[in-house]
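Sequence and fold:
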Amino acid sequence: DSPGKEGTGGRKRNLTLLRNKLYMGQRRSTEPVVESTTTAGDHGNLRRSQSDRTEYSQKLQEKMAPQMVSFTPATSQEDKEEEASRRMMARRVKIITELMQTEKDYISDLDLCIKEVIQPLRNKQIARFDVDGLFSNIELVHQLSAKLLSLLEEATTDVEPPMQIIGEVFLQIKGPLEDTYKIYCYHHDDAHTMLESYEKDEELKQHLRDCVQSLK
């Protein structure tokens, strides 16, 4: 080989070594400084331990969150249904109480009519005054109303509101109610016409006025 070629090969080798030294120097300057193997390992373990706990806590919250969201509305819906049920039951109790009080008031009015009007007119035995035609079967209506009230009291006294079967009472007395009020309604128009004619007679009108006055 010629000396020129040897000089060229030597320069190439020198350039290669120089590049390697420069590369290693740049690598050392950019690498992070580590205090010690023991200290870095301890800090790394500590950071991983804290990170693991944080990640576990987040995953646990994510798993629990859907259950809490679904549980809360269910409880709220159950409370709403219970509150609605309580309101309906309170309203039902109120309606039954008002129904029974209305029936008591009606029976009281019928009592007054029979004792203060019908009986006195019958006792007077006025020839031109048809007491039964004027008042129809009102005494039978009174008896049936008293029976209805008795059945209502039996169905509600010492019975819890949910167990009060009021519909059964009306089904039980349905037939007698229809028969009694059919007669009363059938004679209603005739009784009204009869009353108008009696009011045109001063003597009969006075008898009626005396009975009405006694009610006051």
